[in-house]
Amino acid sequence: MTTPGRPDTHVSRVYRGTFVHSTPDKALQVLEDALLGVGSNGKIAFIGTGPELNKLSQTFGFKQYEITHLGPHEFFMPGLVDTHIHASQYSFAGTALDLPLLEWLNTYTFPVESHFKDLEFARRVYTRVVRRTLRNGTTTACYFATIHTDASLLLGQIANDFGQRALVGKVCMDRNNAVKHYKETYQESKEETSRFIGELLQKKYPLVKPVVTPRFALSCSGALMGQLGEIAKNNNLHIQSHISETIEEVNCVKGLFPESESYTEVYHKHNLLTDKTVMAHGCHLSDEELVLFRETGASLSHCPNSNISICSGILDVRKVLNHKVKLGLGTDVAGGYSASMLDAVRRTLDTSKVLSIQNPDYHTLTFEEVFRLATLGGSQALSMDDQTGNFEVGKDFDALRVNVSVPGGPIDLFQTDGPKILLEKFLNLGDDRNIVEVYVAGKKVVPFTEPTDLAE
Ligand code: GUN
Ligand code: ZN
Questions:
Q1: Which atom of ligand 1 is nearest to the CA of 335?
Q2: Residue 39 DSSP label
Q3: Closest ligand, as measured to the CA of 112
Q4: Does 245 contact ligand 1 (Cβ within 6 A)?
Q5: Which end of the chain is more exposed for a tag (fewer CB within 10 A), N or C?
Q6: Spatial distance between the Cα atoms of 273 and 229, rounded to a whole number of angstroms
Q7: Ligand 1 contact via 109 beta carbon (within 6 Å)
């Protein structure tokens, strides 16, 4: 028999302490002495306050001794959302940052990606990138793999095994590639994309889904882009690509698609701009192009480390937000050298400050706004904000338990700072040592508990 008024879902865990998150109206909301219950379905069952304890424990049927209490320097925040990362480039992260984009692709990137034909190599790299990103608090990742279908499926399996929420893209590219063994024909790209989508969906992984992935307009014929637009539409899938990262790239796109008004038009004409599309970079988009993003519901992934590291450009995030275009943050490994979303937060702030140095009237992003971009903003950019991004009843519990004062950690505290200051210290100075637990859909995924064959 159920108690009248008691919800059907059993509450399996209850936490008491500080929670910080964002809402569409408030970049930072601090909930002190909060009580949060997680259902056995992994969703947030309730959020209340300490004084409501008796009422909540009666309604949801938990005992007070079952509550987990957070320490004085601890808080929960929503999991970080990496809206753009090349899992296949992780092996050379932190190196090879001395060439501009198009040369960088031909010299470093395509030769490395061609090795993912070898499934053992793929397993090694993909296991490590999933582990590294999870440990650094990335609860949702939007991955580029390579052109190889089986290795891309393996990435999906590894993300599922470790419990990370992920979109996984088998890369499509049928032209303009200087590396002989790393290219597909139109027919191969179309057939292998369909096989990839079919096989990945068939696995019925609860948190891992395929994303249609034309590499960018320079790597894809118009025919292939059109076909991929069709496939995405017929299967109601996400789409990801790159846009307007460098001036040289923009000029090449103009040369290849002279009939289009702009780079954004090229994708729009091929039905690749939808409300489930995320485009990386966008440093050199015009106001008219941003309007097209707004109208189609497509989003941008801001990848500041990459934009600076390979000297691509500077995205004016404030302008994008003023245009009401959805925007999340991305690491863009390995154009960006760090796989940590905390780095993406810092580089986003730095980049905004560079714009402020150039123009003293510039409205610099605040750390609270960037915190929102890294969490709720990312989930909106991936059209997943109905499931994740903040602590709302009914959403999945994707969360980081942060201890700002962990022994041997990178942060020294001197006074009794409030939660807002603790969050700011963590965002600017913290690292994976401060992320003591990571939850995805209510399941604790860090510290790792996986079988030893995945542990290395
Ligand atoms: N444009 C097309 N491919 C890539 C890539 O792998 N990395 C980056 N940063 N830009 C791209
Ligand atoms: Zn990229």
A1: 9
A2: E
A3: 1
A4: yes
A5: N
A6: 8
A7: yes
Measured between alpha carbons, how far is 17 from 8 in angstroms, rounded to an integer? 25
Of all protein residues, the one whose alpha carbon is nearest to atom 11 of ligand 1 is 242
- Sign of the CA dihedral running 425, 317, 440, 160: negative
Report the alpha-carbon distance of residue 405 to residue 412 in Å, rounded: 7
Which ligand has the minimum distance to the alpha carbon of residue 218?
1
Burial of 149 (0-12, 13-18, 19+ CB in 10 A): buried
Q: Is 216 in the pocket of ligand 1 (CB under 6 A)?
A: yes
Nearest by Cα to 385 from 438, 326, 447, 450:
326
Q: Cβ neighbours of residue 368 under 8 Å, at least 6 residues apart?
A: 22, 27, 28
Task: For residue 79, report the distance from its CA to the centre of ligand 1, in Å.
Answer: 25
* Tens digits of residue pLDDT in 333-392: 999 999 999 999 999 999 999 999 999 999 999 999 999 999 999 999 999 999 999 999
Q: Phi/psi class of residue 204: alpha, beta or left (left: φ > 0; alpha: ψ in -120 to 50)?
A: left
Q: At what angle do helices 119-135 and 149-162 cross, to 10 degrees?
A: 30
What ligand 1 atom has the least distance to the C-alpha of 303?
9
pLDDT tens-digit series, residues 294-308: 999 999 999 999 999
pTM across the whole model: 0.97
Tokens 């913290």 belong to which residue?
430
